[in-house]
Fold this protein.
Amino acid sequence: MTQQAAPRGRGRPRAGEELDDEPLLQAALDAFAETSYDGMSVRALSRRLGISHALLTARFGSKQDLWFAAMEHACTEAERVWRQATEATAGDDLEALRQGLVRQVLFAATHPQVLRIMNHEGAIDSPRIHFVIDRFVNPLRPGVERLLDRLVAAGRIRSVPYTTLHYMITHGGGAQFTHPVEAELLGAPTTPTPAQLQAHAETVADVLIAGIVTSPG
């Protein structure tokens, strides 16, 4: 009988072995969220992952390049959500907006690191905040504004400043997951079930829609 090799645990990749980017980027995202950009050490991250510092920097470049790659990895999902909501050619515009809101809150629940990072980066002027705005927010903004403009023109919602809606969506609905200790002290479940997350996301969306809608339906 041929004896099978035992599964290889986490450790330094063998020469020529491919690195799996996803766990590396997720670990980087976690580290940036925990300690902020200035507090995160690539060398400490490489020790945590069990790979060499040289290998990590060779794969991703500088610490800032690693930050860009980690945020790109996470925010691509939110980008896809809003493209689907704003580029749909059929269906009801108000429901498309509602679904975008629901899915944005669910994104915040599964990626709380992004909002924690943005809480750091949004207060300072750096290439990193410009990267997020230029790579994700600004390209999506015209589509969101067209959706809102159609709804305003149809008399279905009142006009709301884009910035106001942006922060209500991204920070308001996601704050519960960014501040889990505070949320637990306020009575939120420590580990919410998918049904609880869905209910929270739909409540946030319904409250926001109710605040801007001018006619039923």
